[in-house]
Amino acid sequence: MYSLVDCNSFFCSVEKVFHPGLEGKPVCVLSNNDGCIVALTPEAKACGLHRGDPIFKMQDIVRHYGVQVFSTNMQLYAAMSQRVINILRKRIQHVENYSIDESFLDLNGYERQYDLVELMQELKNRILLCTDIPVSIGIAPSKTLAKMGSKFAKQYPGYHGVCMIDTETKRRKALALFELADVWGIGRRTLEKLNYYGVQTPLDFADKNETWVKSHFHKPGYQTWLELNGIPCIDTHEVQRNQTICTSRSFGEMVSDLASLKSSVASFASASANKLRGQESVCKTVTVFISSNRFREDLQQYGQAATCTLSVATADTIEITQAALRCLESIYVPGIMYKKSGVILGEISSSSPLQLDLFDTNKKRKERRELMKALDNINHRYGVKTLRLAVEGTERQPWHIKCEHRSPNYLTDIHEILTVRI
Fold first, then answer.
1. Could you give the residue ranges of the DSSP H alpha helices within 95-196?
2. What is the tens place of the pLDDT at every residue in 145-200?
3. Which terminus of the chain has a smaller tally of CB atoms within 10 A, N or C?
4. What residues contact 404, with CB distance under 8 A and at least 6 apart?
């Protein structure tokens, strides 16, 4: 059996932890540059707000209902996420952190000593006691069904936060009630294809015979079919590693000079390389894109991208940044007011084994790997960007995002630590 622990309205829940007066009140968290709503509480939804709404269009609702608005603070959310994961790992041996607010637990063998529902209820209560973060937990024979269970646990209070799909009757009932578009692994194109063949519910898809599924879908679709039938087959480590890594931001202020663009691209390349090393992977291609502000029709519009292929797949910040800057210089056009840039790492593979190149010009790859380890250790110990490349510049630059409603980094910055006045 597998379990998925999903933190409810995670970003908003974290903000409520440090602002106790917000319990029961509408709360929203905004995207970069305080643009759109990316997370909101049920109370905020009841006011008529939705995920993706531009906040400037919702000001009347915000003022009328007293909605509390916060800027995204990923550093604070990541610190709270780590606390939840630490609690899980103290109780369960095999914990897989899938995203900042979701973790899979391998419960195989635990059923011989514990009642799984009671065990997960105990874990849920422990997380709430220690972090004040509410979670919903699904238990099922496969990870896809466990994800569905967590959504049922969140949707129906009668489950008391834990829903287990452990029988054939429960599985078929869950598949019949669940929205096909919400099934993990079914994207827009797959949904359109399924609807074309008359499949309207997850149960319709699960009841298709294996030969039909194999003849109409590739491996991901077949794996989803197996998972819906209670056969575990998805390795989420592999899913995460195979995806591209993209880091991009809309600028707080438009910029036109190459130096500012280089600073933004170098910063995004560094962040992407750090993510790459975090999942023990390497990349073979680096893509950079830049664009003007499409909402400013009075300004000249421009958007372009360039890709550089590396001779040897790498996770080296210096090498990736150098490639990104070469791409930027090839597409930069003077005189344009740029609003956004980004870096995409592609052709991602495992860092071991690594295919070398006979004509590789970098003769000190071993030393550079040690340098990256030292860089990561220092930044992990003393804070993000404690050490950075000079081309990234300082923290105060016009392209940096707006965050007028950001909460302090209570858990990671000694200068912003939570204070209590008695």
1. 116-131, 143-155, 168-177, 188-196
2. 999 999 999 999 999 999 999 999 999 999 999 999 999 889 889 999 999 999 99
3. C
4. 34, 71
